[in-house]
Amino acid sequence: MKLNWFIRKGIIYRPASVVGWVIFTIAVVLAVYMFIDIDGRSHSVSDTMINFVFDLLLIGLIYTIIAYFTEAKQKAD
Amino acid sequence: MKDKDEFLKTMENLQVPEINPTEHPKMVKMAIMNAERSAALGVWLVVVPCYFLLCVFMYYFSHIRVGSSWFVAMFTLMSSLDKTPYIDFLGPVIMVVLPIICIIINSLAIIHVNIQKAGQTSKVREFSVTIKIKIWNILLILLSLAIVGIFIGYVMTENISVR
After folding, report:
1. Which residues contact B77 (CB under 8 A, 6 or more apart)?
2. Is A64–B44 a contact, with Cβ atoms under 8 angstroms apart?
3. In this structure, what is the dihedral angle of CA atoms A35, A39, A42, A43, given to the nearest 10 degrees?
4. B13-27, pLDDT tens digit by residue?
5. ∠B121-B126-B130 over CA atoms, to 5°?
6. Closest by alpha carbon to B143, among B51, B77, B34?
């Protein structure tokens, strides 16, 4: 099944369909929720940033894996 | 009649291309995966363990004391990760599984393997490996190997005990 949900620009995948935008929105909302959650439990700015960046990278990784398998096919090397 | 003679003369003077049947035939060396796509995913696969190692690095230099080492800092962070429920499996996955996936997809993008006979009459078969010089893919492979090596070094240091 051919899915064209994302288009790759460098190492960033951009949504190219409604489903792609839905996944992108879910990722952004999850990142914001995690930031608020971590910020509420942490004791300093650096504590917040260190834990949040780790979660943000994990969200970016999962988003990229989904986009990798559902991107629009481009010409081969 | 004159045209016919001219035509025959032209045909006789035609330069025929030389063909060397013993010359190695040119072939298209297609890789299994797209190099740019593999590099794009590989960056994301490697950036998480790199961030983890950066945290270990910062922890090591901020808590530096006599007798402490890089592996002590890594051990402290790993053990704190192990004690946290739901994410206790994340350490090995981040440090080993993600870099190994990165190595596999980037290797498949730049390596071409071919098995063929040495000559038309020869029964000996040749196994040839071709590596494309794609700098980003090669860098990601080396970085992933370094991360896996660091983790293996950490595991060996943690488990080796002198009796």
Report:
1. B52, B55, B56, B59
2. yes
3. 140
4. 888 777 766 665 667
5. 135
6. B51
Average per-residue pLDDT in chain A? 86
| CA of B6 vs chain A CAs: smallest distance (Å) | 48
**pLDDT tens-digit readout, B47-77:** 988 888 887 777 777 765 545 555 566 666 6
pTM: 0.72
Instruction: Using CB atoms, pick whichever of B34, B47, B51 lies closest to residue A77.
Output: B34
Write the residue in A50, A53, A77 that is nearest to B35 by C-beta.
A77
Question: pLDDT at position B151, please?
Answer: 85
Tell whether B146 lies on the interface with A, counting CB pairs under 8 A. Answer: no
- The verdict on a CB contact (< 8 Å) between A76 and B34 is yes
Query: Domains of chain A: which residue ranges?
Result: 6-70
> Which residues fall within 8 angstroms of residue B59, CB to CB, at 6 or more apart?
B73, B76, B77
Q: What is the ipTM of this complex?
A: 0.81
In which region does residue A10 sit, left (phi positive, over 0), alpha (psi from -120 to 50) or beta (all else)? Answer: left
Pick left, alpha or beta for residue B86 (phi over 0 → left; psi -120 to 50 → alpha; otherwise beta). Answer: left
Summarised one tens digit per residue, pLDDT across range B79-117 is 666 666 666 677 778 888 999 999 999 999 898 888 877
Closest to B106 in 3D by CA, of B149, B45, B153, B60: B45
Report CA dihedral (B40, B42, B45, B51) to the nearest 10 degrees.
-90
CA dihedral of residues B135, B140, B146, B150 (deg, nearest 10): 170
Query: How is residue B92 written in tokens?
Result: 């090995």
